[in-house]
Amino acid sequence: MRCGHPVRWLEDRREHLTASANCREHHYRITVYADRDGSLRGVDCEATVDSGAYSSYPFSACLEAAQVASILPGPYDFPAYRCRTWSVATNKCPILPYRGVARTGVCYALELMLDLVAHKAGLEPFEVRMKNLVRPEQMPFDNITNKHFDSGDYPEALRRALASVDLKDVRKRQKRGEPDGRLVGAGLAVYCEQGAHGTSVYAGWGIPMVPGHEQATARMTPDGGLELRVGVHSHGQSMETTLAQTAHEILGVEIAKIKLVHGDTEYTPYSTGTWGSRGAVMAGGAVAAAAREVARLAKAIGAHLLQTDIEQVALRDGAVHGKSGSVTFAEIAHTWYRRPQDLPASVDPRGLEATMGYKPGRDTGTFSYAAHIATVAVDPETGEIEILDYVIVEDGGRLINPMVVEGQIYGGYAQGVGTALYEEMKFDSSGQPLASSLADYLLPGPTEVLAPRLHHMETLSPYTEFGVKGLGEGGAIAPPAAIGNAVNDALRPLGAELLHSPMTPRRVLEAIAAARREEAPVALEEPGK
Amino acid sequence: MKAVNFDYARPRDIEASLSLLAEDGLSVKVMAGSQSLGPMLNMRLVQPDLLVDITGVEELRQVKEEADGVVIGACITHSDIEDGRVRDVTGGALPSVAHGIAYRAVRNRGTVGGSLTHADPAADWISILAALGATVTLRGPNGARTIPVEDYMLGALEPDLRPGELLVSAKVPRLSRTARWGYHKLCRKTGEFAHAIGAFVVDPERGVCRAVIGATESRPIVIADARPIVADGARERFDGRVADALASSAGMSDPLDRQTHVVALRRAVERAAYR
Lengths: 529, 275
Prior knowledge:
The structure holds two protein chains of two kinds. By secondary structure, chain A is an alpha+beta fold. Helix content of chain A is 33%, strand content 21%. Chain A has two domains: 13-198 and 363-519, Aldehyde oxidase/xanthine dehydrogenase, molybdopterin binding domain (Aldehyde Oxidoreductase, domain 4, 2-Layer Sandwich), CATH 3.30.365.10; 213-358, Aldehyde oxidase/xanthine dehydrogenase, molybdopterin binding domain (Aldehyde Oxidoreductase, domain 4, 2-Layer Sandwich), CATH 3.30.365. Chain A contains 13 helices and 16 strands. In chain A, a hairpin with a 2-residue loop joins strand 10 and strand 11 (319-321). Chain B folds into three domains: 7-56, Uridine Diphospho-n-acetylenolpyruvylglucosamine Reductase, domain 2; 58-173, Uridine Diphospho-n-acetylenolpyruvylglucosamine Reductase, domain 3, CATH 3.30.465.10; 180-274, 2-Layer Sandwich (Enolase-like, domain 1). In chain B, helix 4 (93-99) packs antiparallel against helix 7 (124-132) and helix 10 (240-249) crosses helix 11. Chain B contains eleven helices and 14 strands. The N and C termini of chain B lie far apart (48 Å). Helix content of chain B is 31%, strand content 25%. In chain B, strand 6 (135-140) and strand 7 form a beta hairpin. Chains A and B meet through helix 13 of A and helix 10 and helix 11 of B.
């Protein structure tokens, strides 16, 4: 929209819920072929994505449908694959990129199928995964849709997740039965997530907005502190900390003296922004490059002040050290800004400021991954589901700040619980939206989001600065699949199966009722009698 | 969207409130804790000319203990009851139910009278007070009348409120020492309105055995004599078929909906049995 003047946009909750995005609505018809030992032979899929009425800039209408076909194979290696996808226009709100774009639906579809394979083959679900996960010795691995998995040990993530869950105890409890009549079940899901993919990937899609080099400016301030300017924006994921740490790693400037300027196109280098799990990889790489350049500039001035050559000095603890002594960044900055008469004629006129661009050595993306295991209790009388335990083992390459990473995963997990159990944009048969307040559009609250138990792995990416991988979206990808498999594991004694999220009490009861009807097609037993 | 413009009055006594309610040709809404009315105003589901805020009326914030029960003023909040500022005559039933209403922030402001008058079938007071056999007193231009609480709710969001009338209090009967109660509601998340409620009170000394199936599409199903459902005896035995038939004849046609409501009632009865 172009209106030639600034616009102030005020939107209340009701308007937001009725007129904003409509995401995550996928429908799958999927057939998985496998040997009796659980080895996958092929996957055949038809997927339909509800794209709503319009396409949002630059390409939302086909964003998810196009990706479904390329990412459905997940972290698995199998020889035959066909997937046709349709992006269907409806009179609902447009689809928009939402954390874990296309991946959440894909993970749910494939992981539920793999549990069915396990069930048919008489195997434990983890055995089917172990049989088919890409192995570490295959890395880097080009999968069946030519996704280039950069690094990782997928089976190890699953092994570690399994080691922290007492699956045998769950099986024992299932045999014994719970004293309160509920049914317990365990379910798992494994995924890998392409993130921070760059120019070659997006140019291949033919979209009008292709990201190139990410840029950052680093500037030593007159007091010897550091100012970083980046075009990506932190909307709560602590980039201020992560990027400051990245610069600190190279320059040794105290974290407290590093300031991040972001969120204002007037002051920062151009960027396509924060999306696609690219912040740490792309902006982190750019900050590292700019910090290295500033290091070089500071060393040159420092060497001059120490009356030696740049080759004879080293950077350490916020100072330039030579054989004869050291000068602090504060002294170097003071010289550049306030006492230029002390500088040689040959000084680099850029001073202590550098803007540098960054692209990974290979821009096909990093692949972070995780194994999730959910244990749930399902009340077969009311359909209520309680998460009893949730374990996540994730690998995001080099973790710049584990606490920040954990925050990302907790938040993503909470959204995943919402997708699994609560969130649904319902309409009646005449198209009237039925969820126009947060009383109708249910979000999980603190009492519904059991804190997951989280374990990290660090398999470095061979292509990025420090081996960092993008992982901002991952937490939201697997919970519907893991919880869905756990619910179906719990319902299995009743012959019931639920293949639809959110898994509401109503849908659980309908699944149980459908299983009863199948069992006794003549004498229709009404629940409650 | 925000509320339409309206006039606001905060009378100090019931008489002044009633005379404001009697204003001719004006659309008048009574406001107490504003926990339901507030959002409805902002969504413009209600567009009054005048809001009468009755929280300044001292008499409506009174609690009076009597030999056979306690009279609770309309503006007593859920947290007043939760925190024990209202004398409990129900063996813990009222504080326990109050504690489970929505969130603390809502309980701090939401009132008993407001909840009953808003007449949301999924709210808690209408179900538990009906099970306890409570009454409400209304005052209007033609004097006062007292009716059973379940009769005050005609249907969803529809109280039996005649022109110019104001709910002033609810009277909760005192349970005997041997009385037992149970309450169970099904919510998908903490603080959400219930999808099914079961409430049960048995007080043999007073000859009371009442059950309520609440959070229905309309007014709760009140079973004034619940003995056929729980079978007389020292330990209640629950007959789901009778409860299911009652729910069915009350118009609850969906079998799964009936199932969850019957389960809620059974769990309420079980809680009473073990209390």
